[in-house]
Design brief:
The protein has two domains: about 80 residues, no CATH class; about 40 residues, no CATH class. By secondary structure, the protein is an alpha+beta fold. Helix content is about 50%, strand content about 20%. A hairpin with a 6-residue loop joins strand 1 and strand 2. It is globular and about 40 Å long. Helix 1 packs antiparallel against helix 2 and helix 2 crosses helix 3. The protein has a three-stranded antiparallel beta sheet with strand order 1-2-3. The chain contains five helices and three strands; from the N terminus they run H-H-H-H-H-E-E-E. The N and C termini lie far apart (about 35 Å).
């Protein structure tokens, strides 16, 4: 398992978001790696167990981070793309059409692939009836 500390160290050393934002983003990435459900409360509780703090505090931290309009997603994504490409001699764009188990939505993503890893660049979620 990847430790919270190693993910935090990676985000602290890479990126142009504010340090506190990079630390929170690292914590969210770690929580999502080990807790596949995307609910704010669920991620906050999982994070609280790792940080040995109260769930209430971590749920509030997750909620505030996700609702922070000052966080520029393009900047954070650009930092990740630059880090990921690094010394890659070849990169690929991949397309993926996924239908989650709920059978209600479908997700189309465009991903950047380098060094055997892929990160989403753009995505669209479409419901069965065709609405977005």
């Amino acid at each position: 398992m990847v430790s919270l500390e190693s993910i935090t160290q990676f985000f602290v050393n890479n990126g142009t978001l504010r340090l506190s934002q990079r630390k929170t983003l690292a914590a969210l990435v770690w929580a999502l790696l080990y807790e596949p459900l995307l609910g704010i409360a669920k991620m906050g509780r999982h994070l609280a167990m790792a940080k040995q703090t109260t769930a209430k505090h971590c749920i509030k931290r997750v909620d505030r981070f996700l609702g922070n309009l000052r966080i520029n997603i393009e900047v954070a994504q650009g930092d990740l793309i630059r880090t990921m490409i690094g010394t890659a001699s070849r990169i690929f764009l991949t397309f993926d059409w996924t239908e989650p188990n709920d059978r209600i939505y479908q997700i189309l993503t465009v991903n950047l692939r380098a060094h055997g890893r892929a990160i989403p660049l753009a995505w669209s979620t479409i419901s069965e009836n065709g609405s977005r």
